[in-house]
Amino acid sequence: NQGDLVQPPVALPLDGFRYLGERTADALEGRWLLVEPVNGACDARCETIATDLRQVHIATGRRQDEAAILLVFRQEPTAGEIAALEAIYPRFVLAFDDSEASGAALAAANGGPLPASGTTFIRDPEGFLMLHYAPGYDRGDLNTDLTKLLKWSGR
Fold this sequence. Notes:
Shape: globular
Strand content: 25-35%
Mean pLDDT: 92
Largest sheet: 7 strands, mixed
C-alpha cells in the first residue's frame, strides 16, 4: 500500500450526510469510495484536488462503475461551488456533513483531529475507511492502491 492503513478500520455510514445534487447514497452503496473532506470554501486548491481525483477515477478504466468519489463538505457549499465541481466531473457525489457521527469517524480514521482539506481516504464496499492519504500525497499512489483494490476485490 502507498497510503497509510487505518488501524483499526473505521466505519463511515453514508446515512449521516445530506446529499447535494442528484447523486445520493444509493450511488455509493457497494462501491469503493474515494472520500475527500472539504473543510472550507472550495477554492482553486480544492478544484485542483477535485481534478486530480477525477483523473484517478478515470484511470480505473472499465472498473469506473465499481468506484465513486465522495466530497464531504464541513461547511455548506455555495451554488457556485457545487456548479464548479459538477463542471469538473459530473460523477462526483457531493455531501454536507451535518452529523457529528460522520465527523467523528473521519477524525478517528485520521488519527484524532478532523482531517485537513487535501486528505483522502479509501472506503471499502463494506463501509470501512481503510486507507488514509495525508495532504500533499502523490495522486499516483492513490491510483496505484485503488487499481490494486479493484483488481483484487474481483467485483
